[in-house]
Amino acid sequence: TGDTGQGARTWIKQILNQDMAFQHIKVIYPTAPARPYTPMKGAFSTVWFDRYKISNDCPEHIESIDSMCQRLTDLINDEIKNGIAKNRILIGGFSMGGGMAMHLAYRFHQDLAGVFALSSFLNKDSSVYQALKRNQSVLPELFQCHGTADELVLYSWGEETNKMLKSLGVSASLHTFPNLNHELSRTEIEKLKTWIVKKLPVEAAKTN
C-alpha cells in the first residue's frame, strides 16, 4: 500500500544486492493509480483496490477490484501484442499486489503460466472462489509465501486462502517463513526466482 512499481523494484534490489533479472524474461513493475483508501480514512494512496477494512471477514470492494482487472488486462494484452505467448506470462505481487494477481488470473486469465502471492490473502467469500466453483479448465499454478510473524496480513489468512484455492483445483504451494513480519526476505525472493525459471524455462531454439 502506498508504494510504487519502482519502489518495489528498489526494495527487491536492496534485498538481493542486485536487480531481479533473467536473461530470457522481461520483468514489469506496474504502479497502482492513487485512489481514496478506506482503511486510511479515505486518504489518497497508491493501492490496487479499496478495502472496507483490512480483514478477511468482510465483503470485497468488488467495483475497484474489477476496474483494476480491466486496466491490468490491457497490460497483459500489450505483451501478447508484442509476441509473448500468454502461457509464458506470470503475474504476482506483495500483499495487496498478490491479492490483485489472484483476482486477475483466477477470474479473468486462467490460461496464464502462474501466479505468485507474497504475504497476501483473499477474503472469506472472495469472488475468486465463486469463479473457481464454476471452473472446468486447468488453472495457473500458485506460489505463495507468508511470514508467521505478519501482524498486518495474518499468516492464518494466507493459509486459509491456500487451502480454499487447493480445494477448488488450484495447484498451490505455501512457503512459510518463521519470524518474518509483513516484509520480503532474501530466501523468499531466491525461492521465487527459482520458481519463475521453472515455470518459464529458456525455450529451446526452434529448428527450421
Tell me about this structure.
- The structure is a single chain.
- With 208 residues, this protein is α/β, with parallel strands linked by helices.
- It has a domain at 60-199: 3-Layer(aba) Sandwich (Rossmann fold), CATH 3.40.50.
- The chain has six helices and six strands; from the N terminus they run αββαβαβαβαβα.
- It has helices at residues 5-16, 62-81, 96-108, 127-133, 155-167, 186-199; strands at 34-37, 43-46, 90-94, 114-118, 141-147, 172-177.
- The strands form two sheets. A four-stranded parallel beta sheet has the order 3-4-5-6, sandwiched between helices. A two-stranded antiparallel sheet has the order 1-2.
- Helix 2 (62-81) crosses helix 3 (96-108) and helix 3 packs parallel to helix 4 (127-133).
- The mean pLDDT is 94.
Which keywords apply here?
globular; two-stranded antiparallel sheet; single chain; 6 helices; 4-stranded parallel beta sheet; 208 residues; alpha/beta; carboxylic ester hydrolase activity
Structural class: alpha/beta
What is the first-to-last residue Cα distance? 48 Å
Biggest sheet features: 4 strands, parallel
The DSSP helix count reads: 6
User: Approximately how much beta-strand content do the residues carry?
Assistant: 5-15%
At the fourth level of CATH, the homologous superfamily of the domain at 60-199 is Alpha/Beta hydrolase fold, catalytic domain
CATH A-level architecture of the domain at 60-199: 3-Layer(aba) Sandwich
CATH class of the domain at 60-199: Alpha Beta
SSE series:
HEEHEHEHEHEH
Count of extended strands: 6
Rg, nearest Å: 17 Å
Helix content: 25-40%
Mean pLDDT: 94
Major β-sheet strand ordering: 3-4-5-6
Low-confidence stretches: none
CATH topology of the domain at 60-199: Rossmann fold
The general outline is globular
